[in-house]
Amino acid sequence: MLNDLKAVISKTIDVKNKEIKPETRFAEDLGADYLDMAEIEMALEDKYKIDILTDRTVMYSKTVNDLLKAVEERIKNKKQT
Fold first, then answer.
1. Which residues, in sequence order, are CB contacts of 79 under 8 Å at separation 6+?
2. Cβ partners under 8 Å of residue 73, min gap 6
3. Which end of the chain is more exposed for a tag (fewer CB within 10 A), N or C?
4. Would the pLDDT of 81 be above 70?
5. What integer is the mean pLDDT of 61-73?
6. CA angle, 24 as apex, 75 and 27 as ends, to 5°?
7. Structural domain of residue 61, as residue ranges?
8. Helix %, strand %, coil % for the chain, to 5?
9. What is the pLDDT of residues 9-47, one digit of tens each?
10. Listed residue (34, 36, 5) closest to 21, CA to CA
11. Across the chain, how many H-helices and E-strands are there?
């Protein structure tokens, strides 16, 4: 899943995939702003057919790993319902 997430981030923010690591910070390391994060959120919702817009998961994720954990949790919860 990390590679899929990196691909979404790379495409959205226009950074090289190899620059994205779990500890990479969105704002500080990648220069992502609010609109970038909104685009990542929409792309992840489309890709995984999950609803993360409701709790602003992406907006509050500081690092790639934060976002990865949140998306994995959403997918897990979706499978349980």
1. none
2. none
3. C
4. no
5. 91
6. 95
7. 2-80
8. 70, 0, 30
9. 999 999 999 999 999 999 999 999 989 998 998 999 999
10. 5
11. 4, 0
The predicted model scores a pTM of: 0.88
Nearest to 20 by CA among 29, 28, 12: 29
CA distance between the termini of the chain: 21
In this structure, are residues 56 and 38 in contact, taking their beta carbons and an 8 Å threshold? no
Q: Compute the distance between CA of residue 67 and CA of residue 71 in angstroms, rounded to an integer.
A: 6
Strand partners, 25: 63
Domain count, the chain: 1
**Which residue type occupies 29?**
D
Question: What is the residue whose two structure tokens read 């500081």?
Answer: 62
